[in-house]
Amino acid sequence: VFGAGGGTSSYREVEETDLVILWGSNARETHPIFFHHVLKAVHRGAPLYVIDPRRTGSAQWADTWLGLDVGSDIALANTIAREIIHAGLVNEAFISRATSAFAEYRASVEGWTLEEGERVTGVPAQTIRELAHAYGRAERAILCWTLGITEHVTAVDNVLSLINLALLTGHVGRYGSGLNPLRGQNNVQGGGDMGAIPNKLPGFQDVQDDHDARARFEAAWKTKLPPRRGWHLSQMFEAMERGELRTLYVLGENPAQSEADSKKSLALLEGLDFLIAQDIIMTKTCDMADVVFPSSASWCEADGGTVTNSERRVQRMRKALDPPGLARDDHWIICELARRLGHNWGHPTLEQAWEELRSLSPMHRGMSYKRLEETGGLQWPCPSDDHPGSPFLHGRLWEEPVQGPRAPFSITTWAPPIDELNEEFPIRLTTGRRLDSYNTGVQSNLYSSPLRRGETLDLCPEDAASLGVEPGEIVHVSSRRGSIQAPVRLDEGLRPGLAFMTMHFPDDIDVNVLTIDATDPKSGTAEFKATAVRVEKRGSGDREAAGMASGEASR
Amino acid sequence: VDVHLLDAEPTAPERDAVDAFLGPPLSSWVGADRVDDGHSAHGGHSARAQRHQLLPTLHALHEHAGWISPGGLNYIARRLTIPPADVYGVATFYALFSVKPRAPRVLHVCDDVVCRCAGSESLIATLRKQIGPSGTEVDGSTWLPSPCLGQCDRAPAALLIQSGEAPVERELTIANAEGLLAIMDGATPQLARSAVPPQAGQPGLQLLGRIGLADPESLDDYRAHGGYAALRRAFDLGAEGVIREVLDSKLMGRGGAAFPTGRKWEAVARQPRRPHHLVCNADESEPGTFKDRVILEGDPFSVIEAMTITAYATGSERGYLYLRGEYPLAQRRLENAVEQARARGLLGDDIFRRGLRFDIELRKGAGAYICGEETAVFASIEGYRGEPRNKPPFPVERGLFGQPTVVNNVETLINVLPIVLEGGAAFAAIGTERSTGPKLFCASGAVEQPGIYEVPFGTTVREVLQLAGGVRSGASLRAILLGGAAGSFITPEDLDLPLTFEDTRASGATLGSGVVVAIDDQVDLGRLLMVIAAFFRDESCGQCVPCRVGTVRQEEALARLLTDRPRGTVQDELALIAEIGEAMRDASICGLGQTASTAIESAIHRLGVFHGGAPA
């Protein structure tokens, strides 16, 4: 919508805003540092709204929690939009100056009355209205989201439906008002910024459409760039399935355990001709690989470099330790691999690589290592040496007249999750993360934690009672794709028909055996958040295994 | 707040006791049965705004159950959205709460300085012999030693707290062994009567004039004795006029810190931030002090009226009267007074039809000396452990709930009535140049007629003792404790010391809260010092290391001296005590740590307690 992928606001703005919405985000556990910024706003008096099927730790901090049904985000957003429109809380000046396609959008949400919203999302109409009015009336408001929005087949539309709300109310492009996807790692933002995504060159310049950019990169690199966008992760697996992708070079990922419908993805990885894995730890993917490159931990062992955080701040990294054994910095391994494949790039330092980036990516141009060190980090876009960096994005939408293209409203259509509930699979399983663990546990399971209790199937007390199962009891959990066993844990933050698991302990319990690999055609993200499952008490024949500590994945 | 609750469940009576105070829970998230409300919840700021209900809720549970069980604690945590560990931290801060099962009837027997002078040691010895050591339960009753119960005019004293469906709290005065044993046997003592000061009925009393004459339970009788004339006069003066009179009066705070009251009021009145709060500090816990109790029991409406005038002058809409937990009679009298004042429109939205909006909430402490500190009382009202705050910011800028707050002691407030009625100048003419007005002194110990006495500032110690009938016949005066446990000892040679802020300060003593305890030569001074040292060790909130550690070290050094086992020489131990005292004075953030050694050091230096190596 706006032309660049990044959170629009600074952390400081989050602290000084008047209203915070966390949508599909349990930041309290999954972005604990960011949540401290949210807490500063809360302690200043800003109300916090949390939208999440579960009443999570974040939701417990909220003034109001909206416990929508899994996958009904577009319905909720459109209902909020209609209520804002009907209550006369739209920012008409902003809409007419800076946006397009409002009339069509208004017509598209007209059917989403509060009653219809309540019917589809489960959230009481009064509570939806409360949020709509609070967001519409706020002087400043920041809307944040995470994987609860993007791990759906409607991922892109989910995001667009949230952007619509900001366009309606003018809550974007101003200090203290913005839209912020929270990044899961210290450098997810930087990865995208540097072009480690299939459709963009460094600096969000399109591989396919931006011919000027292509020409500049081709001149600098003295080579011809492939003429089309590459595959994203899901498309790679589809290509493996078709037999088109036969060799895979995996850097710092663990697809053997992180992919939805893991039985299928494991088979595809095993079927490759050649698999290279590069990691700081022997992951399960490394176990499967033909060649493993041990790499240094970039945040403490690599010699320099930068990371970019969720507020687009580029920061310098410094080496604290020598890497163990034969581990080498990622960039050294890549250059060395290139050399042995017949392309001698030499061994540029990271600063030399950064200088090349500055010459090719306009939004990084003003960020010399010297300035980054002096300022402690700069926020892009920072186009020149005297530019202070940009605390927030899209301020152009508030200029009169608007500089550049208007921001279009998007028509988004709600559709229920692919994996339907029925009598055979009556429980909605949603997956997520916990405070003390990280994704497949490659990084976090190396450390002990007093909070970590291993994988569990979290149920509400009512469901546990009706199934006749006790906390700690090992049960069968089955989806249309597979079945696993896991011990039960009770969580009052769930409601009947809603269950929760993580993917932190795939070696013990491989939750992604259950999940569906249906992906959003626009983003390629799989629907980790919505699986239909059946939970069954184990038969008497299973009793012997019940004494085991944490259950075991069925093979 | 994301609250991780315990597994413990409350019993039905525990749940009922909490719900009776807080009202029924409105959603399953805060304790109602789980129904179909799994799609939304409210909390956040509104939940956290209930935090101040924690202490009264703990009282409600404790009154009924006799202790705070894990299930009850967990239920309070759920109702108020406070982590259980946090609730536990608050519950265990206060001496009157137990988090272990305890007998429903607890007899608290004072063994502090004054009661000790009146024979409490033998009472306790009897209990120990007949019942068993403190904490022994016999048929639902137990006894515990207690720090000063504020009944020094009627020593020795005890307090019965009985939990259950019909909780009972009764103070016992001039207690004897038979009476205490009967209570341990299940007898319920008579309702205590309020003390009548020995000067009652004398003409010219500014502060005690009504006590013993007007019915403390009747608003009409209060008015018949001149009540609410001062508020009427205050309206004529206007808010700024009232502050001007108080400035002119040179009234200094009577709680111990002696800060000019008018300046405090002016600072609050000028704060643009609203709302402003008013706190009446009635957490009278300084050993030997009972003046506020006598006022609250004998003339409760005067405190309400004085608070109303203060609120009017400072623009405060809400007043909190923080009463120490061991004053059940004062509590009843105040509850009655607030209720009557409300019913007559003397508290509420339009007082005197002058558009003044003000109301008073009574808050009950639960046995913590430190809550008399002006910022600790805020923390206690807000529902936190009663730990003092660093200053600045001062209460006039950021006090209760972070808002500009005027906090005054009971005695300070009632001085406002004569100031408003007769003018600041007339008030300033009483006493001395720098200590103006009348002052209440709590005379107790080895005197013929213990009680509170109103005299002008400048009266000597000798004159106060004479008013109190002189030293008890047959007794020989050994020392006088001025200012309570946080005060200092003086000798019989110092009897002509004028009681003013400036003279006591110049002589290295302190006026404190107006305590004058006469100590005769029958009292074991060494034991008395141990009582004082143990008191501070027990009451230190633990926040500042010098005080938390220093009060322990001080007690240990004293114990070594008293058992004649000094580490090194006696002089080494005395040097250590002096050094500990200096560290506590310099590095504690509040008055408790700063004064925790003054009485002990004064006993060493003035009374020569360890002179020559053994207790004199």
Draw up the topology in text.
The complex is a heterodimer of chains A (555) and B (616).
Chain A: H1 11-15, E1 20-23, H2 27-30, H3 32-44, E2 48-51, H4 57-61, E3 64-66, H5 73-86, H6 92-98, E4 99-100, H7 102-109, H8 114-121, H9 125-137, E5 142-145, H10 147-150, H11 155-169, E6 178-181, H12 188-193, E7 200-201, E8 205-206, H13 211-221, H14 233-242, E9 247-251, H15 255-258, H16 262-270, E10 274-279, H17 284-288, E11 291-294, E12 306-308, E13 313-316, H18 330-340, H19 350-360, H20 369-375, E14 378-379, E15 407-408, E16 427-432, E17 457-459, H21 461-467, E18 474-478, E19 483-490, E20 498-502, E21 531-537
Parallel strand pairs in A: 1-2, 1-5, 2-3, 4-15, 5-6, 9-10, 10-11, 16-20, 17-19
Antiparallel strand pairs in A: 7-8, 12-13, 13-14, 16-21, 18-19, 18-21
Helix pairs in contact in A: 5-8, 5-9, 5-11, 8-9
Chain B: H1 12-22, E1 40-42, H2 45-48, H3 54-65, H4 70-80, H5 84-91, E2 105-110, H6 113-117, H7 120-130, E3 141-146, E4 158-162, E5 168-172, H8 177-184, H9 219-224, H10 229-249, H11 261-270, E6 276-282, H12 291-298, H13 300-314, E7 316-323, H14 328-343, E8 348-351, E9 356-364, H15 376-382, E10 405-409, H16 410-422, H17 424-428, E11 438-445, E12 451-456, H18 461-467, E13 477-482, E14 488-490, H19 501-506, E15 515-520, H20 525-539, H21 545-562, H22 570-587, H23 591-595, H24 598-605
Parallel strand pairs in B: 2-3, 6-7, 6-10, 7-9, 11-15
Antiparallel strand pairs in B: 2-4, 4-5, 8-9, 11-12, 13-14, 13-15
Helix pairs in contact in B: 1-3, 1-4, 3-4, 4-5, 10-11, 10-13, 10-16, 12-13, 12-14, 13-16, 20-21, 21-22
